[in-house]
Amino acid sequence: MNTFGNLFRLTSFGESHGAAIGGVIDGCPAGLEVDVNFIQAELNRRRPGQSKLTSPRDEKDKVEFLSGILDGVTLGTSIGFMVRNADQHSSDYNNLKDVFRPSHADYTYQTKYGVRDHRGGGRSSARETIARVVGGAFAKLLLKRLGITINAYVSRVGEVDLNKAYSCLDFSLTEQHPVRCPDLETAVLMEQRILEAAKAGDTVGGCVSCVIKGTPVGWGEPVFNKLHADLGHAMLGINAVKGFEYGSGFEGTRLSGSEHNDVFQLKDNKVVTKTNYSGGVQGGISNGEDIYFRVAFKPVATIFKEQETVNLQHDPTVIIPHGRHDACVLPRAVPIVEAMAALVLADHFLLNQTSRIENLL
Amino acid sequence: MNTFGNLFRLTSFGESHGAAIGGVIDGCPAGLEVDVNFIQAELNRRRPGQSKLTSPRDEKDKVEFLSGILDGVTLGTSIGFMVRNADQHSSDYNNLKDVFRPSHADYTYQTKYGVRDHRGGGRSSARETIARVVGGAFAKLLLKRLGITINAYVSRVGEVDLNKAYSCLDFSLTEQHPVRCPDLETAVLMEQRILEAAKAGDTVGGCVSCVIKGTPVGWGEPVFNKLHADLGHAMLGINAVKGFEYGSGFEGTRLSGSEHNDVFQLKDNKVVTKTNYSGGVQGGISNGEDIYFRVAFKPVATIFKEQETVNLQHDPTVIIPHGRHDACVLPRAVPIVEAMAALVLADHFLLNQTSRIENLL
Amino acid sequence: MNTFGNLFRLTSFGESHGAAIGGVIDGCPAGLEVDVNFIQAELNRRRPGQSKLTSPRDEKDKVEFLSGILDGVTLGTSIGFMVRNADQHSSDYNNLKDVFRPSHADYTYQTKYGVRDHRGGGRSSARETIARVVGGAFAKLLLKRLGITINAYVSRVGEVDLNKAYSCLDFSLTEQHPVRCPDLETAVLMEQRILEAAKAGDTVGGCVSCVIKGTPVGWGEPVFNKLHADLGHAMLGINAVKGFEYGSGFEGTRLSGSEHNDVFQLKDNKVVTKTNYSGGVQGGISNGEDIYFRVAFKPVATIFKEQETVNLQHDPTVIIPHGRHDACVLPRAVPIVEAMAALVLADHFLLNQTSRIENLL
Amino acid sequence: MNTFGNLFRLTSFGESHGAAIGGVIDGCPAGLEVDVNFIQAELNRRRPGQSKLTSPRDEKDKVEFLSGILDGVTLGTSIGFMVRNADQHSSDYNNLKDVFRPSHADYTYQTKYGVRDHRGGGRSSARETIARVVGGAFAKLLLKRLGITINAYVSRVGEVDLNKAYSCLDFSLTEQHPVRCPDLETAVLMEQRILEAAKAGDTVGGCVSCVIKGTPVGWGEPVFNKLHADLGHAMLGINAVKGFEYGSGFEGTRLSGSEHNDVFQLKDNKVVTKTNYSGGVQGGISNGEDIYFRVAFKPVATIFKEQETVNLQHDPTVIIPHGRHDACVLPRAVPIVEAMAALVLADHFLLNQTSRIENLL
To answer: Most buried pick, A210, B11, C325, D144, via CB within 10 A?
Structure first.
């Protein structure tokens, strides 16, 4: 089950210390101009070693395209791609071969499959998200043609909370600071919090928020594949994610209906809503307003402290992980959240093409 | 896109004021004993008119099975079923034919499809969940054979919060009170809150929590279809849901890794975790601990107050909805949350059958 | 696995002697006018008891629609439908409860599922095709809007072969004779052959041919889901089908490449091919020429002669089937072949909407 | 739509003159020993340049595995692989850039996608089948563990027909002659026929037959995904295939039911059939007998003769193809037919795991 999407589909492969991470993008319409520099730039936002906040594993994460593109344009055929793994330090993991790291996937993989690649977490490593970022970059290129923008940013690190509505933020500043919070004062505090955790050999969690502007009315399949349900599915499939909420989210459930309803009105002869507690989705279908949601990331499970656990033989033991790890995944999660959002939207864009017969004749 | 699941699949149909709501259950293994009384009892938990807290629409919601069962046992073939709609008051909706109710699906359906069934919300009505409850009941019958139990309950209504860990609750009390909170003191407060909202012609939201016990280690597809991602997808596909979190959820992101990690230990020669911030899922795969999650439901959009809006011709207008509606969906959402959870688990149970070659020979 | 199609999907249910046969059509675009009389007429072409050539089981096969249609137009939501089984003579099958009829599905169902509905073949009965005909009728309504016609006909019964190219036939005559061969002289011979077999308590097989006119260039997914591969899949899924060939088929493999190639030329400024050995599909994609194919149907397995077999206890026994059966399925297979072809084409019509970005902007 | 299969899935990519052909195998159970030499040997049976009967394009077709395997065993994760294209002579195709070769996919790809890779046929090239052979090799490794064997062979070239039942053949001889017909006398005649065609700059078609032994009773999904329907789908998706028949096929439709029925009897306390017109499948489900089928391949469309056609601008023109091509695809089609059959069987093996509840408890 390594395929995501219905019409715009990403199939991915790759272990952290295997030969390569890669995938196949299927269903991307023909004739899309492929901006290779943009795709590589998206990967660079995800890659380790990009700042002092991220793992020092030195991966160039250079993507190679294997098919589906000619003369800078998609052919309508499947697009194969891969990123070679280069800077593996597999021996860092020798001592973990037979041990289950707490709150990692070691124990569950071992029990499910009877075998696992223990090196760097194998398939459960966040390196797997390389394929998501490449797939998402194609989706972004498609959505750009429709005037849709997707901006994610770090909105909380531990208790350091960006207490501002997204409408008060300037997303052009997000990439100005390695922590990827567009409010630079808060970004500095977040950075301190991360470095403090790192210094203590510990880790810290938080939230990423995401705002999508420009989605037309009508995207989303209204029963099981509501637009926000597919977005939630996409986000919850990212490593370390513990929760998803859109629009007014958990807090909105404290309001009464009369407070929460988004009244329709006209603006420049267009139907808009006065408020947007709905988060741009009503009945599972986009209503033309901004789509926004928030994603919870747990603190990284790899800490540099002694921890009790059990081993393959089910004997108690203790571990102190080696290896190179982020003290906080949030800054690098930003492009991943955007990529998954883009994949969902591109898929629903294509799905919506056939909703009305009058558009087909 | 009215199909849910990969191997254990539910395809559903039906509008609120159409002839029937129903569906097809496909992939249910042959030889499962079908307890029709249990299935009907699940529907009764969902149906309107069951208490003063719910819509007075008087629907018996009697399920009729059309195929796939013989002599009380599933045949392995697809199971068709339906529930006739009986007590429609379609004329209640005449005045809404050309008007978009705020925070409803009217505007988005109309724009997406160019046509809609305005009577009772059509396909966007919560009556659609009848099919989910029937499908979920089959999934529950299957999971029961494995010793798995699923218990949902109302954990918050507006600001009335059940501030107790699930381990302190006695789920056998949930059905004792129509509000479906197993803490009966809190249930009374919740009921008051709902009736107060109803009296004001207003509505109120809240949260449903759900606990799954007895899941073996190994269920879940670890990349895009992580067990919790599929649970989240299922929940976010239910009408009025705004958020999903599992295990430590949003609050857990405030902890450090050293606080949050679930240390493995042995108990009766079995690998268990000391804490369960992971919510029973690690790396997207069940680890044998309790699975628990929380779902946010917005306040019902239908309020009996005058509201501004626009109509089909994009002219401003005002509405006061008629019809029969719940002031709070939460009590009736409990069996729906359980049903969707059961469908996800049954599907992953079947998917997991083929994960290891040694189990296949 | 009772769902057919990718975007235009049919999910079906029903056993021969169960309560009903039915299904759910999903993905049909909104706004399609539903000609209920046409759909019922298609079912009437399939139903038993329509002529002396078909089983005397007297089923009106009246379709009831349960959802997805309002004021004669599709809503874009899933369309539930069913046909009640009425004239079952289940007791005819009492003696077959524990016996495996030769060349039937009794033994394989029993072994696969451990249980089966022996009455009238249960799910393996050709009554299951009712759902296909209803689904196909919607697909035909959609394709009609595009000017596409689908005409199947009986082209061989036993050794009675219609030795004429389809271009020499007048399809308006197909329904003039109950055998459904548009060449009425041949139809009479075919009828004699069928009645002769029936008189002998025996059965006879043959071929159905099908011609699709008006398909635009570009339909088909060129690797695994070539247009002809999906047509073949659809046909081979019909009961009693043993083979499928399209265009020049098996015979064409005897030609050399220079004889077989379809040279392109211009006609009225349109690209056409001089010959059409390709059968309207090149590289798995329609090329605008007529699509034509041929389907082989085995002789019906139910014969009214004593046959050796084994029973549930694996003891040798003999049977003489009772019940009501066609001596030849071909006349009633004609609307089924058309229905399945229509489902495939409608699906590929929708799939092709997203092949090029320039059509999406 | 470049994915094949439901549980055992192959997703493929690659153009003839692009960087690589490859794919992702998903759903292969963990713990399968990967015999890399066997996989490469299967590729060698498919590769060009293996004999004087095949295209002289000199491709080593060396497969590289990118993920999913550790210490010679599958991990249960997705298996990425690729074969670099090496010996492209892309300039051979310069003159074909704007021309539509007769009976090729040039015109249909161009019209569908608005763009195409004209070099070597791009995605429509038979080089695409490399991914099928690799995927099929994994499926074969799985099926071997169950004692299932799959043997395809060339049964007709033009008019040179192997007129022998498969039961009279010794499949160990198939690889003894480059034409891949196990009857060596017939093989010589076939070879002569192919060389004769090649000498004339022409091509020749024919048939491949395939026999599967050892399939247990119960595989196949009995409505739309009958085992033979999925086999037919798989075969018709191979380039140049024009027809598929299984068991008694088209010829069997000339028999009466009393001749054609396969009577059940006991042999060594096992239920078997006296004859096997059913081809090992009844009601869409395997019955334990040999599965056999026949596939029609048209003569290769690339001939070295002048042919009329039209160009991109829809002007008449003539072409004489250059490039390197087989005069007959049949010898190289043999491993491709086997690979696709293996993929279908492996998928149905996995699908059948969940058919009965008693096998799951």
So the answer is: B11
Q: Output the CA torsion sign for B331, B336, B341, B345.
A: positive
Which 74-133 residues of chain A touch chain B by CB within 8 A?
100, 102-109, 111-114, 123-124, 128
Question: Please, what sign has the CA dihedral across residues D36, D42, D45, D46?
Answer: negative
Which residues of chain B neighbour D358 with C-beta distances below 8 Å? 31
pLDDT digits (tens, 9 = 90+) for B313-345: 999 999 987 766 789 999 999 999 999 999 999
| CA quadruple D180, D181, D182, D184: dihedral, nearest 10 | -110
Q: Please state the length of chain B.
A: 361
ipTM of the complex: 0.97
**Which chain B residue has its CA at the smallest distance from A261's CA?**
B103
Distance CA B55, CA C257 (A): 72
Which of A66, A78, A123 is nearest residue D19 as measured by Cβ atoms?
A: A66
* Residue, of A88 and D12, whose pLDDT is higher: D12
Closest CB to B354: pick one of D353, D359, D361.
Answer: D353
Q: Minimal Cα–Cα distance from A32 to chain B, Å?
A: 25
Which tens digits make up the pLDDT trace of B136-179? 999 999 999 999 999 999 999 999 999 999 999 999 999 999 99
Token pair, residue B338, equals 């359980």
pLDDT greater than 80 at residue B58: no
Q: In this complex, is the C-beta atom of A245 within 8 Å of any C-beta atom belonging to chain B?
A: yes
C103 in Cβ contact with C242 (< 8 Å): no
Q: Indicate yes or no: pTM above 0.95.
A: yes
D280-291 per-position pLDDT tens digit: 999 999 999 999
Sign of CA dihedral D138, D142, D147, D150: negative
List of chain D residues whose C-beta atoms are within 8 Å of the C-beta of residue A14: 66-67, 78, 80
CB contact under 8 A, C77 and B9: no
Q: A292 — phi, psi (to 5°)?
A: -140, 145
Residue A168: CB atoms within 10 A of its CB come to 10
**C112 to chain B: which residues are within 8 Å by CB?**
30, 76
Q: Would you put residue C240 in left (φ > 0), alpha (ψ -120 to 50) or beta?
A: left
